[in-house]
Amino acid sequence: MPLDTAQHPGQANQATRDQGRRALIHIGLPKTGTTTIQGFLAENAHLLAARGIHTQHPDTYPAWFRNAHAGPAIVALTRAGRLIPNLVLRKKLGVTTLQDQARFANEFETKFGAFVRDRPSGLFVISGEPMYNLLDKPDLIRTLDGFFAEYFPQRSYLVYLRDPVDWVASQYSQSISSGQDINLRTLIDQVARRDQFAQIAAWDDLLPECGMQVRLLEPDTLHGGGLLSDLCHVMGCNLDGLHVSRDRKLGLARHEIALLRYANRLGKNDLGWRLLRQTRRFRFSGRRGSFKLPRHHRDAVRAMFASSIERIRARYFPNRTSLFGDKSTPAHTLKDATP
User: Does residue 147 form part of some domain?
Assistant: First the structure.
């Protein structure tokens, strides 16, 4: 049963609304640079504030900043009377009941509301992958937007789309690096269960009064040719004068994946697992060619999302002949790493 909405801090204080406030809400899809965006916003929070752009940063939620990006999604779930579906996140937050969850949601609303009230005008940029990962039903998406509407009369949503051939390869690299032993075909079957391209169009349909800004992670479409320069363009500012940290997250090479998959089968408590992971660090330190999908897997991924990608192209990019540029055939396959 949904909790009494009168208890929600944001709803209780409608005076928070101000015509001078606007919100840009970034829905972070997996493997589309969300961590890079959030790190950039946090690092430049004070510099951006001087330009009239306000964003979440460690000073706002010092005790639990790492969980703050999940705040809006948890508020929406709580208002709808539903527990967080992700058991790992639930355990991380110490949530076992809806009442536990409501305490987190109310604390977030209180801090978020205070942050907004202290800034009577400007653009507020909110970024979070949990908004996509946790909210997959129309009523939850509308509830989320209802929460933001209490603070921002003007709202727009932003999403970056990446070629599925690239993000599946990146996801596979991350899965192996995190300790999983999974073959590529299994991972492809898993990602096929949720079509992010179809879901983004659904978000736009549900929130027509807000508008969805759809951007492509393709060099020929990004303003300035890069993600952060494009983000600044969308926010209405210039990248000049802002800090840009070097991205140290490099994808695994083919041979690293083969070695780590073998190590992962041993288990983290095995001495061999630790030795092999250390071996990988110096053995492949100078060979950083990131893994690319073999042709047959690449074709399978493209076919899997072909219809929804075409709908996105026709709807948002009618002047492009194809949504994503064709990737050249990789020089190798993963025969030794994907049995």
Answer: yes
Q: How many angstroms separate the CA atoms of 325 and 75, rounded?
A: 38
Give the C-alpha separation, 267 to 255, whole Å.
19
**Are the CB atoms for 75 and 110 separated by under 8 Å?**
no
Q: Could you give the CA distance from residue 182 to residue 307 in angstroms, rounded to a whole number?
A: 27
Q: Residue 214 falls within a domain, yes or no?
A: yes
The values of phi and psi at residue 314, to 5°, are -65, -35
Structural domain contains residue 148:
yes
CA–CA dist 19, 17 (Å, integer): 7
Domain assignment of residue 133, given as a range:
5-163+196-235
The model's pTM: 0.82
Mean pLDDT over each residue of the chain, to the nearest integer = 81
Q: What are phi and psi of 125, to 5 degrees?
A: -105, 120
Distance CA 251, CA 172 (A): 9
Tokens standing for residue 154: 């003007």
Position 208 scores a pLDDT of 87
Complete edge-to-edge strand list for the sheet that includes strand 154-161: 53-55, 122-128, 21-27, 154-161, 212-216
Residue 155 CB partners (closer than 8 Å, separation 6+): 22, 23, 25, 145, 148, 149, 210
The tokens for 266 are 């041993």
- Tally the residues of the chain: 339
- Name the token pair of 269: 């408590």
Q: Are 90 and 84 in contact (CB under 8 A)?
A: yes
Taking a C-beta distance cutoff of 8 angstroms, is the pair 54, 119 a contact?
yes
Cβ(54)–Cβ(235) under 8 Å?
no
- Residue 172 falls inside a structural domain: no
pLDDT in tens, 59-69: 655 455 556 78
What is the total count of domains within the chain? Answer: 1
Among the residue ranges 10-14, 119-123, 206-210, 244-248, the one predicted with the least confidence is 10-14
* Residue 250 clears pLDDT 80, i.e. is over it: no
